[in-house]
UniProtKB/TrEMBL annotation, chain A:
Keywords, in A-Z order: Transferase
PROSITE patterns membership: GST_CTER, GST_NTER
Listed name of the protein: glutathione transferase
Domain GST C-terminal: 39-162
Entry keyword tRNA-binding: no
Secretion signal, residue range per the UniProt entry: none
Enzyme Commission number(s) of this protein: 2.5.1.18
TrEMBL record, chain B:
GO molecular function annotations of the record: glutathione transferase activity
Source organism per UniProt: Xiphorhynchus elegans
Keywords: Transferase
Record-stated family: Belongs to the GST superfamily. Alpha family.
Pfam families cross-referenced by the UniProt entry: GST_C_3 (PF14497), GST_N (PF02798)
Presence of keyword Transferase: yes
Residues annotated as domain GST N-terminal: 3-83
EC number: 2.5.1.18
Name this polypeptide is given: glutathione transferase
Length: 175, 229
């Protein structure tokens, strides 16, 4: 009925708009609620971090829909990227400035997204933060922020990982 | 002291081309360093220049920026091509997301086998004519303005023109059902900075060829088969 600009979801009705395109929606929410840094340069840094996280998230997302003979290789690749490409960058960022948050000494969407991706990675491999002490304390710290803490509790709108038995349904709808 | 932005990438389109377009549209001169060898790439990585060990990388305003989207957003905001407020920015982000997805179908094209190329050409044309072009045609028809967002030239217009030209390279008459887009194409192409970028001798890159594919594979050691999505 014309609600989906490019015939795709996600779609979010917000402030009189029917927004599509994940990044557009996330950008809008982040800017509106002051989670996007204080100036252009902080936004640039947040964007760089967040885009890296999107790339890793995509690897996680595609794992469930891999054919059986490709799953193991995909798993190895995504774990390798998490521990050798992405996590070291965020560990170093925290180490270099010694602050509580990734960018500008202030809570931002980069922190939210990093926590999300850490938790997803741990669902795949529980000890994955073993070599990243600063990410471990980051995880504890951000998880304690009241709004985040509430979201992490049972009964919130946070969703579960896709179940194996639902994968064929997802594929049928979207692919 | 204001140095020109410097782009680090292969001598070809890939993910850097949208950045070249946007800088050119904004009238910003830029320099380029082309990756030809594995050694150059490893040197960049070892020097700590590539945050996630990937290119594109753009040196701009004292930063070594990576991640195409981050770079484009920064340039758009800096040169006033990102709308006048949050809501215009939201629209621009939505439209750019669409053209990004469309160009994504084309980006892998040179890496496909001959047989997959034919299939992918059909996919590109189908997506363009049934999903993306109708959306932008309607936007232009509904407000009747010259530009996609806010009656002002923006990143969304540059990106759409780039996408239109790329799809036309795959099927030259692909705009035949889209009169608004035809007029849009003519209009945006005449903007002086864009017009200059479309002329021979500019830093715009040609359609990728086998040499480009070979260079990318060699530098990135990307020898696996690329499958269409």
């Amino acid at each position: 009925d014309g609600s989906l600009l490019f015939q795709q979801v996600p779609m979010v009705e917000i402030d009189g708009m029917k927004m599509v395109q994940t990044r557009a929606i996330a950008n809008y929410i982040a800017a509106k609620y002051n989670l996007y840094g204080k100036d252009l340069k902080e936004r640039a840094l947040i964007d760089m971090y967040v885009e890296g996280m999107f790339d890793l998230n995509e690897l996680f997302m595609y794992y469930e829909i891999q054919p059986a003979d490709k799953k193991e290789q995909h798993f190895a690749n995504m774990m390798d990227k998490a521990t050798n490409r992405y996590f070291p960058v965020f560990e170093k960022a925290l180490k270099d400035h010694g602050q509580d948050f990734l960018v500008g000494n202030q809570f931002s969407r980069a922190d939210v997204q990093l926590l999300e991706i850490i938790l997803m990675a741990e669902e795949f491999k529980p000890g994955i933060l073993a070599k990243f002490p600063l990410l471990q304390s980051f995880k504890a710290r951000i998880s304690n922020i009241p709004t985040i803490k509430k979201f992490l509790q049972p009964g919130s709108q946070r969703k579960q990982p896709v179940r194996e038995e639902d994968v064929p349904k997802v594929i049928a709808i979207f692919y | 002291m204001s140095r020109k932005p410097k782009l680090y990438y292969f001598n070809g389109r890939g993910k850097m081309e949208s950045i070249r377009w946007l800088l050119a549209a904004a009238g910003v001169e830029f320099e380029e360093e082309f990756l030809e060898t594995r050694e150059q790439y490893e040197k960049l990585m070892q020097g700590g220049s590539l945050l996630f060990q990937q290119v594109p990388m753009v040196e701009i305003d004292g930063m070594k920026m990576v991640q195409t989207r981050a770079i484009l957003s920064y340039i758009a905001a800096k040169y006033n091509l990102y709308g006048k407020d949050l809501k215009e920015r939201a629209l621009i982000d939505m439209y750019v997301g669409g053209t990004d997805d469309l160009m994504g179908f084309i980006m892998m094209f040179p890496f496909l086998s001959a047989e997959d190329k034919e299939k992918q050409r059909a996919v590109i044309v189908q997506k363009a004519t049934s999903r993306y072009f109708p959306a932008y045609e309607k936007v232009l028809k509904d407000h009747g303005q010259d530009f996609l967002v806010g009656n002002n030239f923006s990143w969304a217009d540059v990106h759409l023109l780039e996408a239109i030209l790329m799809v036309e390279e795959k099927k030259s008459d692909v705009l035949s059902g889209f009169p608004q887009l035809q007029a849009f194409k003519a209009r945006i192409s005449s903007i002086p900075t864009i017009k200059k970028f479309l002329e021979p001798g500019s830093q715009r890159k040609p359609v990728p060829d086998d040499k480009y594919v070979e260079t990318v594979r060699r530098v990135l050691r990307m020898y696996y088969d690329v499958k269409a999505n």
